[in-house]
Write a structure and sequence with these properties.
The complex is a heterodimer of chains A (108) and B (190). Chain A is 71% helix and 0% strand. Chain A is mostly helical. Chain A has a domain at 64-108. Chain B has two domains: 2-95, Rna Polymerase Sigma Factor, Chain: A (Orthogonal Bundle), CATH 1.10.1740; 120-182, Winged helix-like DNA-binding domain superfamily/Winged helix DNA-binding domain (Arc Repressor Mutant, subunit A). Helix content of chain B is 73%, strand content 0%. Chain B has helices at 2-21, 24-45, 50-66, 77-95, 120-130, 133-144, 149-156, 160-177, 179-189. Chain B is elongated. The relative contact order of chain B is 0.10. Classes of the chains: A mainly alpha (108), B mainly alpha (190). At the A-B interface, helix 1 and helix 2 of A face helix 2, helix 3, helix 5, helix 6 and helix 8 of B.
Amino acid sequence: MSDPHDDDTIDALLRQQFDGPVPDDGFSARVMQRLPPRRRHVTWPLWAGILVGAGACWSSLLFSPLLRAGWQDWLAGELSMPAFVLLLAMAGMSALAGWWCVAEAGDR
Amino acid sequence: MADSAAEARIDQALVARTLLGNDQRAFEQLLRRHQGMVRAQLRRLLRGDGAMADDLAQEVFLLAWRKLDQFRGEARFSTWLYRIAYACFLQACRKRSWPVGDAGDGEVGQLPAPSPAMDLQLDLERAMQRLSTAEQAVLLHCVQLGLSHDEAAYVLAMPLGTVKTHAARGKAKLKTWLAAWRTTSEEQIS
């Protein structure tokens, strides 16, 4: 072996010192025996939560004068306070949905 | 490079088969493909304790089985496994209060001049053990397991700059400590 005075030689020495992959010798079989059954990923609680949340939101806002007034003002083209609040809420929800989509796309 | 890309594609396909078809045989193939290197990694981290390394490796693969749906393919499957293994190693160190300290930080002397019978590999082993744990871990992953600096940073959960610093510092220390080998061989030549 050459002298350990440069990076390449040190690298070569370190690689030589490494024993490499360990032979299986029944290791995989032992792990496979201990493997627990796979849990199915349950998604219904998430969807049920979203539906219940959306329903509760809708029922509480349905008879609210703020929502009705805002909607009517918006249709009439008036930027009153209720219409502005409605617009702000929609913009906020759109921004949240957009951020979530970008985050999901980035993870994939 | 092409080989490693092909290997990565095979791993991805096996992961997909495991997840979609709940296919234990696909997972077994993944296990057989990677157990050797994960066990080797843990043996080096545990300084040759094969039994302990195998216990931890078993834990690593059981964890990988449970968390396989969290593997998103942003790193190679082997790199993902190394990361789990390193996290398990650190957790085991904390549980058993093993030192994860700085074995040789600061002292940059030389190992005793080698006698002709002394083996360079033996000295290298001793020199490696005098490095700090972080330097040892970086050199193990970057040089011996063949990961890139980026991959080592992912496995060790360290900033890229820190990985590069530890690699350079570790090699510099090894060069200094093993300089006696060079001096001796130069003396023999003159």
